[in-house]
Amino acid sequence: MIITIWGSQHMAIQFSADFATNLHDENLRKNVLSTVGALCDAAKEISDLCAQGPLISGLGAVTGIENADGDDQKALDVQSDEIIIAKLRQEPVAYYASEEEEGINTLAPGAALSVAADPLDGSSNIDTNVSIGTIFSIFPTAPGAAENSFFRPGNEQLVGGFFVYGPQTTLIVTCGNGVELYVLEPKSGQFVLAVPKLRLAEARAEYGINAANARHWQTPVQLFISDCLTGEPGPLGENYNMRWVGSLVADASRILSRGGIFLYPADNRPGYEKGRLRQLYEANPVSFVIEQAGGMATNGTSRILDLPLSELHQRVAFVFGSNKQVELVRSYFKP
Ligand code: F6P
Ligand code: MN
């Protein structure tokens, strides 16, 4: 069953009747639906840009500056950020924090929600016709300074989700009552519910990690991957397969579809001591989705969603996926 909400200002999604029904405050739910709707409008525009690829010159061109996290900023990173902020300006959103920007944007002071986003995840794949995406996290606005809305553990998120611009454009999203998967239907131009209760496989002997960093990894990660490579005759007793796209959204989407484990651990390269991925823009929303689909997300020793945040662009070691494989990795971290 499908519901239409509050007029037709957002045409880009047909929400399921279950969407956010765990939010009992009707105004809050209304604000959440409207804001997720705006993000779908933004994602549709970004998806259109991605689909044109080299027909639009310079999408993957480097702007010549590094973003707030020290990555090369591409033209599409900047455009995606601008598209999102333009849509959110019409929404009940007080603050917007973006991986592409140093500080927090104040949009509608006093509004109920605050949004954090990685506007274009997987930017090293922009020019390669490989899946990329947008990741977002919605918090209730906290009283006081703008930072208060973001400097908190991920377990306080109202919504976490991500869009994948791939063979299909999809939205995978949770409000804390399970995970829904929507597909952007090309004909109607709307995100349409495809999987109402997405569940992650309990186990699958498949891992994803950037193995080029093997010599820099922490010992527990080196031992786990070494045992995966040994396969059936080794302590894990089964052969492992390997898949690594290099866009978090695509790797997360694959794991949600068929199980397995993703690892981007901390390592001893300068700047990677706390991992590579960002807690606020990437690990929090992906972890919320993974847990709601029945999986686990950890930094090796602690649950991602319980970690406090003290810097906007804070990095975190990130391991998530099927319960069996994540528990295994956790066991390698135990003294
Ligand atoms: O946003 C960072 C990101 O592009 C992720 O999408 C991806 O998982 C990771 O970086 C890949 O990192 P690396 O290039 O070090 O393998
Ligand atoms: Mn990213």
Summarize the structure in words:
The protein is α+β, with helices and mostly antiparallel strands and 335 residues long. It has 2 domains: 2-195, Fructose-1,6-Bisphosphatase, Chain A, domain 1; 206-333, D-Maltodextrin-Binding Protein, domain 2 (3-Layer(aba) Sandwich), CATH 3.40.190. Helices cover 27% and strands 25% of the residues. It is globular, with a radius of gyration of 19 Å. The structure holds 6-O-phosphono-beta-D-fructofuranose (F6P) and manganese (II) ion (MN).
Q: Topology, pairings included?
A:
Elements: E1 13-14, H1 26-52, E2 62-66, E3 72-74, H2 75-88, E4 93-98, E5 104-106, E6 113-121, E7 132-140, E8 159-165, E9 169-174, E10 179-185, E11 190-195, E12 206-208, H3 219-230, E13 241-242, H4 248-258, E14 261-264, E15 277-278, H5 279-292, E16 296-298, E17 315-316, E18 318-321, H6 323-333
Manganese (II) ion is lined by residues 118, 121, 248, 282.
For this entry, give a set of tags:
single chain; 2 domains; binds manganese (II) ion; Fructose-1,6-Bisphosphatase, Chain A, domain 1; globular; 5-stranded mixed beta sheet; alpha+beta; binds 6-O-phosphono-beta-D-fructofuranose; 6 helices; D-Maltodextrin-Binding Protein, domain 2; disordered N terminus; 25% strand; 335 residues; 9-stranded mixed beta sheet
Roughly what percent helix?
25-40%
CATH superfamily of the largest domain: Fructose-1,6-Bisphosphatase, subunit A, domain 1
Tell me the distance between the termini: 50 Å
Task: Give the CATH architecture of the largest domain.
Answer: 2-Layer Sandwich
- Report the total helices: 6
β-strand number: 18
Q: How many individual domains?
A: 2
* Distinct ligand kinds: 6-O-phosphono-beta-D-fructofuranose, manganese (II) ion
- String of helices and strands: EHEEHEEEEEEEEEHEHEEHEEEH
What is the CATH class name of the largest domain?
Alpha Beta
Do you know the CATH topology of the largest domain? Fructose-1,6-Bisphosphatase, Chain A, domain 1
Tell me the structural class: alpha+beta
